[in-house]
Amino acid sequence: RVLFRSICDYDTGYMSGVEAGKYAKEKLGGTAKVMNVGLPLLSATVLRSHGFMDGLKTVIPDAVMVHDLDGGGNPDRALEVSSAALAKNADINIIYGINDSSSLGGLQAWKAAGKSQDGLLTVGTGDEGLAFINTMQNGTS
């Protein structure tokens, strides 16, 4: 016997985007400037990113994607491309990662740039273990 569990990537991203929009509307002044740490190689992760932006725009119609990055699905690559993007334009308030590693890499780049986490929302789609959860709860990375 084999057990297989699957998600609809677009719907998962969409629901995350709606919730991020609600948070941004209440806590971030109603603006949404997104750094997407994606993985364009895989259609599933592209669907997550598109769903996230579509869901976000149902709550904040003028939400913009400032950076659309290829984080490679791993924290080292995500850190590298996020750092380069933030050096060019750090005017974001939402980091969306297609998996936990991508979100963590984006957040590490934000911290390495000396930015405060006040006014920043980090969202990840994934179930890769406790690293992302612990980082969010403890403020460590």
Would you give an account of this structure?
It is a single chain. β3, α4 (100-112) and β4 (121-124) form a beta-alpha-beta unit. α1 packs parallel to α2 (43-59) and α3 packs across α4 (100-112). The chain is α/β, with parallel strands linked by helices. Strands 2-1-3-4 form a four-stranded parallel sheet, with helices on both faces. The chain has helices spanning 9-27, 43-59, 75-88, 100-112, 131-138; strands at 33-38, 64-70, 94-97, 121-124. The chain contains five helices and four strands. Helix content is 50%, strand content 15%. The chain has a single domain, classed as Rossmann fold (3-Layer(aba) Sandwich).
Give a short overview.
The chain has 141 residues and is of the alpha/beta class. Helix content is 50%, strand content 15%.
For the structure shown, list the relevant keywords.
single chain, Rossmann fold, 4 strands, alpha/beta, 15% strand, 141 residues
The name of the CATH superfamily reads Response regulator
What oligomeric assembly is this protein in?
A: single chain
Query: Which strand order spans the largest sheet, edge to edge or round the barrel?
Result: 2-1-3-4
Strand residues, percent = 5-15%
CATH architecture: 3-Layer(aba) Sandwich
Specify the CATH class: Alpha Beta
The pLDDT mean sits at 91
Distance between the termini: 39 Å
Structural class: alpha/beta
- Discrete helix count: 5
Task: Write the SSE topology.
Blueprint lengths: L8 H19 L5 E6 L4 H17 L4 E7 L4 H14 L5 E4 L2 H13 L8 E4 L6 H8 L3
Parallel strand pairs: 1-2, 1-3, 3-4
Helix pairs in contact: 1-2, 3-4
